[in-house]
Structures are given as structure tokens and as C-alpha cells.
Design brief:
With about 200 residues, this protein is mainly β. It contains one helix and nine strands, in the order αβββββββββ.
């Protein structure tokens, strides 16, 4: 996986040598959950911030490579009248490199889809409301996922983006190690909102 990051970095640097390319920054948030952790809902909100390079391939078709910090995880706190109470919060900090194709519809709308490659910087959990501890079981150091979304031009320099991402491979096994057909463990599930600023073209 380290070799993949090196290759992506080389490709990104090579893109900046092309004549028809754009570069910029992105800033936003990610609404996240971990599928397979016995909780549900996009209750965890984490930041995402990074930069991108876009290279024009054809008139409407481009390739985008991003490099960003994104916080994923889960948050679920519940109680009931019969004193049933539960608490779980997970914070997963990633450096992520999405590689996407993007297609322009009309003058202002873009759709994009591709793969994401993530490296886990740190992972902590609070299972009882008494403070965070290192995740147990541990999460895998790397993540491979898919991403798809759309962007809309607000101005010539600023775009708004809405995307959804999902892990292709499990980010860690189920705590009990059980496997159910295609359910091989736990998976990151995200909805991402961001503003994109193009500062160079």
C-alpha cells in the first residue's frame, strides 16, 4: 500500500507539468458511520481539508487527484425508560487520496466517481463515556474505498461538492470475528460536503 501512495504522488507531480490542469483547496465536513458496529446513522461529523489537482483529458472529461485529511468514525448514545443505556464514539483520522474521473454536464454541473486510498493516522474509541482509549480491536492501517458525487459551480472559482464514500474492504474484523457472506467485518460509510476553491488554472 505504501507503494500505491508513492505512485499516486508521482502521478500528481506529473499532472502539474501538464499544460491543461487546475489546482486548488477543499474544506468541508464528513457525516460518517461504521457499518457493522451495531449502531446506525450518520451521527459522527468530522472535518476534511486538503488540496487537489485536475487535468483535462477531453472537452468534458477530466481526472482529479485529491490529497486530504478526513476524520471518520461513529457516534451512538442511547437510553430508554427501562434504564437501558449505551455509549459508543469512534474517531478515525485518515490521510486520504481519492482518484476520480469527472464529467461536466452543461455549464456548471460535474459528476465524479473513483477510488480512494486511505492511511490511518490514529484510531481511538470511547465505549462507556469515560474517555477515549486506543481502538480495540485495532483498525487496519490502510483503507480502499469507492467514492461518487457531484459538484456545482457557485462562481468561476468556487464549487460546492456532495459525495458519498464506502470502504471496499473491511476496516477491521467484527469484534467476535464472525463473517456473514459478503459482510466480512466493519466498513466506513460517509457522506461528504465541501467547498472547493480553484486558485490556479
Amino acid at each position: 500500500m505504501k507503494n500505491i501512495f508513492i505512485i499516486l504522488l508521482i502521478i500528481t507531480v506529473s499532472f502539474t507539468q501538464a499544460q491543461n490542469f487546475e489546482a486548488g483547496l477543499l474544506l468541508g465536513g464528513a457525516f460518517t458511520q461504521i457499518d457493522g458496529d451495531a449502531s446506525s446513522g450518520y451521527n459522527r461529523i468530522g472535518p476534511q481539508v486538503g488540496a487537489f489537482v485536475k487535468v483535462d483529458l477531453q472537452r468534458e472529461l477530466d481526472v482529479i487527484i485529491e490529497m486530504k485529511y478526513i476524520q471518520k468514525g461513529a457516534s451512538n448514545i442511547w437510553s430508554s425508560n427501562n434504564s437501558n443505556y449505551g455509549y459508543y464514539v469512534a474517531r478515525l483520522n485518515y490521510i486520504e487520496v481519492p482518484v476520480m474521473g469527472t464529467y461536466k454536464f452543461g455549464k456548471k454541473l460535474y459528476v465524479n466517481a473513483g477510488l480512494t486510498f486511505g492511511y490511518l493516522i490514529s484510531a481511538i474509541e470511547d465505549k462507556d463515556g469515560y474517555g477515549f482509549l486506543p481502538a480495540d480491536p485495532v483498525f487496519h492501517s490502510y483503507e480502499i474505498g469507492i467514492i461518487a458525487g457531484a459538484s456545482y459551480e457557485l462562481t468561476s472559482k468556487i464549487l460546492a461538492n456532495l459525495s458519498a464514500g464506502y470502504s471496499v474492504l473491511p476496516i477491521r474484523p467484527h469484534p467476535g470475528g464472525q463473517v456473514r457472506y459478503f459482510d466480512r467485518g466493519q466498513y466506513n460509510n460517509t457522506i461528504q460536503l465541501s467547498l472547493i476553491y480553484k486558485f490556479f488554472k
